[in-house]
Structures are given as structure tokens and as C-alpha cells.
Amino acid sequence: MPYITLESHLPGITGLLEYAKEAAQPIRNLTQFLLRGPSTLSEADRELIATVVSHNNQCTFCTTAHTAAADLLAGEAETAQKVKENIETAPVTEKMKALLTIAKLTAQNGRNVTTEAIDRAKAAGATDIEIHDTVLIAALFCYYNRYVDGLATALPADAGYYNILAERLVNHGYTRLPQGYDHLKK
């Protein structure tokens, strides 16, 4: 049960972002830019970064939501699952393995990112902006994970909610729906 009064039809981060709309707007803008804006990393790659960080932070809501979004963007459900199990054996490029490792290290503690991890990413073809964005996405999702779990937000009553959320994230992005979220009330 959430520690503060949130809309019961809005589990996880959505309820928090609706609770404090003014504070949420810059967060939504940053997330939209990092995960859906122009990048040499695909949207699926960026969702995998969010998935790895959330998984390693043991944030059930964010892990499930971003796994669903990564799966939808990739058109399959194997890659995100394999990345959560073992980055090194996952069916992603060497560059993504290196970037996902940097994301995982960032989630543990920013100081855990080593010169060796950066050199590995660069040797695999990662650009400075890709490394920058990986660390920033990882830091952002650490924030989200702590926000969601720190206020004990509710998980959806129906696991199908994550597929609906994934469709919204893929097709609409991270901005607030213009009509709000009352349509989700049952």
C-alpha cells in the first residue's frame, strides 16, 4: 500500500507523476528526450538500459514495465529476459554488452564505473555521447526506482496493465497523455 494517497487506478510511477504534476513535467521531458529523442542507440537499446538498471535495483514495477516496452520495440521477448539473466551471454552486440555493463555499474554506484568498462565500450564502437547517455539513463532510472519503491507504489492488479503501458510508452512516449488517465479507472 502506498505511503501517500495516490490514485488507485494508476500504479507505479504514473500515480506519482500525476500526484505531483508540476514536479513531474521536467522529469517527463528528460525521460522523453533520453529514451525517445534522437540517438544512435535504438529506442529498444535504451529500454534495455532502463530494464537492466531497474532489474538490478529490484524495482518490480519499473523492471516489468521497461521489459514490456523493450519487448514491444524489439518485436520479441527473448532479448530483455536474457539481458536480465546475464549481459555477457545475451543476444546483443558487444557494444550493447559494454554499455549495459556500464549501466549496471552505474546503478550499483557511479564510482563503480571503471576506466576498463569505458575502454571496453569504446573498443566496441561506443561513442562518447552513447556512454554519456547510458550513464544518464542509468542514473535517471535509479531515481525512478527509488521514487517508486521509496513511496511503496502499488503494482497493477492485472499483469496485462504492463502491455497497455508498453504500448503507451512505445506509441506516445513519456509525455503525459493530453486527456490524462481517468480512462484507466474501472
From TrEMBL:
The keyword Oxidoreductase applies. The keyword Iron-sulfur does not apply. This is Uncharacterized peroxidase-related enzyme. Keywords: Oxidoreductase, Peroxidase. Signal peptide: none annotated. The lineage of its organism: Bacteria, Pseudomonadati, Bacteroidota, Sphingobacteriia, Sphingobacteriales. InterPro entries: AhpD-like, AhpD_core, CMD-like, Uncharacterised_peroxidase-rel. One of its GO terms (molecular function) is peroxiredoxin activity. Pfam families: CMD (PF02627).
